[in-house]
Amino acid sequence: MIVPKFEGLQGRAEAQSWPEPPQVLLQRLIHRVDQVLLGKRETVTQLLTAMLAGGHVLLEDVPGVGKTMLAGAFARVLGGEFKRIQFTSDMLPADVIGGAVWDSRISELVYRPGPIMANIVLADEINRTSPRTQSALLEAMEERRISVEGETRKLPEPFVLIATQNPLSYEGTNTLPEAQLDRFMMRLSIGYPSMENEAKMLEQYASGSRLEPHQLRPVLMLEEWLRMQREVRQAHVHPGLLEYMAKVTDATRRAPELELGLSPRAGRDWLRAAQARAYVEGRRYVLPDDLFATGEAVLAHRLNGISAGGRQVSEALIRIMRSTPLPASIAPGQAAGRQK
Length: 340
Hints:
two-stranded antiparallel ribbon; 11 strands
């Protein structure tokens, strides 16, 4: 049985209590975004989980299913500064991170900030630009800083990058390098709406009652969001779960159907995502179900299979997660999620 220990944590929480439980605020946030992207509550929850964990998200799907709308809705309910970068084939790194320009008034070069200098940055159709421009995001995504003209500048806090990309079979796209894919905490797919939700959406458009992202009001202040991110990292994780995670990552490196296993960064991101998932559900401790709920979204895009096909990679990951035994110190009933 997992028995969380919070001695120091409870004292800190009581010293600065919330006016209402954080999970109530987070569920309100999810509800507002869900009003814009109908019927995709689990995708909304996963995106919120990644952002709470301090991670970046890659939304990969066919055009027109609401990837940009989802990112814009989150930017509105969080109330931070939002910038959108529409990636094209002729973009340069300076179009992302900014650069030095000549100021004739003071007769010297001054830094002109690029759109990366914001709390929430939408990198729309990121795989339509060249690898050179994509590489401009690497330092920003991992170190939360950029280097321009030999000078390093920190990015605003919080900072999250939400990137969208069309499937690679589409013309004019470039494969994201492994180093960049590994910096995305989650890769999510929205998918087509159900017939009922699509009919409801069309009805809203017909009646003029459709809620658009720019109409949403902030649910949280940035200070509250940063405090939540700090509290997420205090969630207790049983040593047995850490052992299980290490066994899964090691198994991916030895699996015959995989040629590229998981990096240590993948394990760290999986841990942070599980802590955030527990926090969203109102817990200060992680359960096995938190690992199973976040595992595929956090890990699958970091793996390379021997044969082509993302489905094959996902199936291999799920098989490894299900076949890896949980330590005896964890109650069997707490592993129900692995059978789903």
